[in-house]
Write a structure and sequence with these properties.
The chain is mainly β. Helices cover 6% and strands 49% of the residues. The strands form four sheets. The chain has a six-stranded antiparallel β-sheet, covered by helices on one side. The longest helix has 16 residues. The radius of gyration is 20 Å and the shape is globular. The N terminus is likely disordered.
Length: 278
């Protein structure tokens, strides 16, 4: 095991810290095509599994709407090999949950023996996509960029901006997503795991008393994508007698892709999402 760990550190240092070779290869993994990967993140001062997925044929993990923060990718033990590393292709959000819409320099840190080291800097494209290779299963990486490098989300008549805050397991509340609805007042979000969620309009965009429609793709407690119609239980917290009481809103069914459309979602309220076993 010590040799494996040493190899992992050497591979990391070679893959992330070395001077780039004269011939730049496309992002890829090593001995990691079509492997199952569990992705953990630290948000709101707590670590939880956000996504369970598979790499593509090039050994690359592809994920959208990735917040700045700490991440760890664990290859399923049945798929672990020697001399193995992962590539990633990530669409980044800023600290407020807005999608990046210009080239942004992202600092990638790695934690080794409890210490944080700057491994490399990677530029996103103008749509916020970041690509890099050489990540080692089990190592912790932090994605960070300057607080002034925030995305812009301008006002658009008929499409109010909605801020989404989340609280997953034992985490504190954190900014999860910030986007406009479409003209029909539908907000689309993906990779929603069980937890609590709050929604609020950008001040001045819309009367907070007016609802919107949420179209969400849900994942289960382990971050697994739902692959069959699944019931989603929705509750809301309301203050009564000086304390918050949870009230059942109802149960909706997803389709076979884990997508459900929920009308009548109100802002300034605290919703709880539970994915029920069939």
């Amino acid at each position: 095991m010590k040799n494996c760990k040493l190899w992992g550190i050497l591979l990391l240092l070679g893959g992330l810290l070395a001077v780039a070779p004269a011939v730049v290869k496309a992002v890829s993994g090593v001995n990691a095509d079509n492997v199952r990967v569990k992705i953990y993140t630290e948000q709101g001062d707590d670590t939880f599994r956000a996504i369970t997925t598979r790499t593509n044929d090039d050994g690359v993990v592809v994920a959208k709407d990735v917040l700045p923060g700490w991440y760890r990718m664990d290859i399923d033990e049945d798929h672990v090999q020697d001399s193995q590393s992962l590539g990633v292709r990530l669409r980044m959000l800023d600290k407020d949950g807005k999608r990046l819409n210009e080239e942004t320099t992202v600092d990638m840190y790695v934690k080794l023996n409890g210490e944080k080291y700057l491994a490399k800097q990677v530029k996103t494209d103008d749509s916020g996509w970041l690509e890099t290779s050489g990540l080692v299963s089990g190592n912790e990486y932090k994605l960070e960029f300057d607080s002034t490098d925030s995305a812009s989300l301008h006002e658009k008549e008929g499409s109010p901006r909605v801020k989404v805050k989340a609280k997953v397991r034992q985490s504190d509340w954190f900014n999860a997503f910030y986007e406009r609805t479409n003209d029909a007042k539908v907000l689309e979000v993906r990779d929603v795991v069980p937890g609590q969620y709050q929604f609020s309009y950008k001040t001045g965009d819309r009367d907070p008393a007016l609802p919107f429609v949420l179209k969400a793709r849900f994942r289960d407690e382990d971050g697994e994508r739902l692959k069959e119609p699944t019931p989603i239980k929705l509750s809301v917290y309301k203050e009564q007698g000086g304390e918050e009481i949870r009230h059942l809103v109802g149960t909706v069914m997803t389709n076979h892709r884990g997508v459900a459309t929920i009308p009548g979602v109100m802002t300034e309220m605290d919703y709880k999402v539970e994915v029920l076993a069939n």
